[in-house]
Amino acid sequence: MSLHLPNTPVIETDRLTLRAFAAQDVATSQPFLTSERSKYMGGPYAPDAAWEHACSLIGHWAVHGFGLFSFCLKGTDTAIGDVGPFFPYGWPEHELGWGIWDAAHEGNGYAEEAAIAARAHAYGTLGWTTAVSYIDPDNAPSIALAKRLGCTLDKAAPLPQLPDWDGTLVYRHPSPEAL
Questions:
Q1: What pTM was computed for the model?
Q2: CA nearest neighbour of 64 among 17, 125, 2, 142
Q3: H/E element, 58
Q4: HSE of 71 in the Cβ direction (CA atoms, 13 Å)?
Q5: Which of 72, 111, 125, 167 shows the greatest Cβ crowding within 10 Å of its Cβ?
Q6: CA nearest to 160, candidates 67, 54, 86, 51
Q7: Mean confidence (pLDDT) of the chain
Q8: Where are the beta strands (DSSP E) in the chain?
Q9: What is the rounded distance in angstroms from the CA atom of residue 77 to the CA atom of residue 80?
């Protein structure tokens, strides 16, 4: 059974479908969240913490009316990553985040394609005028993606007040007018 939050947008790109994080994504995201691959976003998580983290992404949609999209290859409903607008408690600014859950899907441009669509949604539908991406300085693939998206390093931007976030880089996305 594939349960989805009602009244949430579905965005189609050439190769992907972006939809609200759904119940089946909790299990699909677990191998990523409990692996070393999640180290740049607080992981690896213990299985129970991974479950809670994934469930919180559904809750984010319920609280804010937006959140990270799961993205799937077009024609499937199995998520291969997440992307999109994010604004949890304690964040000083709206964030655009992304992640590919399985290394087999890296290097195909999926994260970039999904991030461009999600940013257009944040700037258009949600009316955001700015967005940042918080990136670990050792996460070279995310830094490279931020640069391909036209983001610039913003050394003056505030960070979420979280443990172990000292040194986190803030990449500012171009304004809607600059795109």
A1: 0.95
A2: 125
A3: helix 47-64
A4: 29
A5: 111
A6: 86
A7: 95
A8: 11-12, 16-20, 69-73, 79-86, 95-100, 132-135, 152-153, 169-172
A9: 9
Tokens of 139: 């996460």
Instruction: List the structure tokens of 6.
Output: 């009602």
120-145 pLDDT tens trace: 999 999 999 999 999 999 999 999 99
pLDDT digits (tens, 9 = 90+) for 55-92: 999 999 999 999 999 999 999 999 999 999 999 999 99
pLDDT at 3: 57
Phi, psi (degrees; rounded to nearest 5) at 169: -90, 145
Closest CA to 28 of 96, 66, 81: 81
Angle 13-19-25 from CA coordinates, rounded to 5°: 125
Q: Is 119 exposed, middle or buried (0-12, 13-18, 19+ CB in 10 A)?
A: buried
* 3 state DSSP class of 70: strand
Q: In this predicted structure, what is the pLDDT of residue 178?
A: 94
| Dist. CA 158–CA 94, nearest whole Å | 11
